[in-house]
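Hi F.,

I've been meaning to write this up properly since the lab meeting, where we talked about keeping a consistent format for the predictions we share between groups. The idea is simple: the sequence comes first, exactly as it goes in, then the structure tokens exactly as they come out, then a line or two of notes. No screenshots and no reformatting. I'm using this chain as the first example so we have something concrete to point to.
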Amino acid sequence: NRRSREVRSGHWVPVKPDPLPSTRLVIASTLLAAEMGLDSRFLRTDEFRRFFSGEVDVVPGMKSWCTPYALSIMGAQYTNNCPFKTGNGYGDGRAISVGEIVTKAGSRWEMQLKGGGQTPFCRGADGRAVLRSSIREFLASEAMHHLGISTTRALSLVVSEKATVQRPWYSGKQSAPDKDDPRLASVPPEMRSMLLAMLAQQGRDPDSMVRESCAITCRVAPSFLRVGHVDLFARRAGSKNATELQKQQLEKIVQHAIDREYSDTCSSGDLRERSLSMMHQFAERLAALTAGWIRVGFCQGNFNADNCLVGGRTMDYGPFGFIDEFDPGFAKWVGSGDHFAFMNQVQAGLANFTTFATSLKPLFPPGDERVDSALSTIRESVFKPALMGAFSSKLGLSMQSRALPDLVARLEAVLNQLRPDYTIFFRELASVALMPQTTSDEMLIAAFRPSFYNPPSKPEASELVSWTKQWLSTLNAEGGAAEAAARMKRANPKYILREWMLADAYRLAAKGDFSLVHELHKLSCSPYDEQPEFESKYYRLAPKEALSQPGLAFMS
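Output, unedited:
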């Protein structure tokens, strides 16, 4: 059942993984295993390695499957991504669920192999993941959990010592001229910027084919139910010629979403009433999720509805990136556009939520406006204030602070001018909170110096000092600067998974050395702690090449 084909009905398709040959366990999360009720000794067994390499028959009684879903981008429905142009051939292309574990406490964990082989939704691709992307997936999943952001988790990562595939990637030889390049001396000034932009864009695409080892990450979550799942069945049930079966399948997928993600709080009333209750709770989770990404400096990069989980968790660690130099338009993936850019992620979340809400409409009779009414209320009361909530925690202030909106607006203008290191700036700000209000301008500027990629001009320094004094005054007026500083250190991580760190790890891993993978995993398990043994190595500005080099500054 591994050929690309149309799947016109049903919520899942049985398919077995295609096992990787001659595998080696790179890393496993003992903390997650304990949460799942797995003995840590099991992680070191041959049975564990083989099962999570795709040999699912080594554990009797486990079933495996994949699922279809639809694609919506910023609320617009698409079918051209489907090889049949119908939407019936889109879904889990290389992710295969291999069973569930229910713990004694009643928590449920679905296990999914990313890179487990072809499925009916593979769209002609090989169904494989490579070691480079799998290391990024494993480390980022666990890092986000320890950052306090809801996320899918990663249980294991295996690599094949035999199977390889080719992938487009960057040779490192691309170089676009800058404005001072002597080769541009004869180009008219009015044409120079346009030419530079064109050359820079060309350099954003991979320029070589690289052979890489195949790998599989086992990602884990209470469910992998996506907005795209509900979207697919709503499209069918809402069509003019919808069959009774298609209407029933929408009802079943909505009921399944309630049962798996909101059973404790959406248990009363009929399906319509329960779906409205789920809608409100999903909004709270999704707004908190996207605002949380901005709080910790994370950009998901491709937040389509099919990459948005109904449970409000982060997933799809492919085109993600943690920000170095502040840029509201930051994204690692060259296809992110402005709509998925760093500071626009709450709006992208709202677009996915709108798709979800719209997908509930076929459950309601014509003229019933409860979904639209709820959507209007939620847009104003939940999503609109979410970003302000993230910055209130970063600044150590309460949401009720009257000065907060002005402080945030001024700060964003300051950051746009200075373009400091986002993580270091806010971490150092927690120390500034403890400074007396009489601190000299020079001392205030010096406190932020570790975050500067470029020295501030006099006007920029003046504006930073002015803002800092306003913030300190507000902080002290509200009382408890020491408590605020402590809160800020719990909201502003010291360590994030910067792309140059990940690149060092996967380059070394390609040579069979996984020591940096384990080191980064250890580092990211305590991102808010000082960890002095790692400070000089990882609490520093990104190297210059990380801000411009293909594969580090951006990727396709």
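Notes:
The chain has a mean pLDDT of 94.
Residues 15 and 65 are 5 Å apart (CA to CA).

If this format works for you, I'll send the rest the same way.

G.
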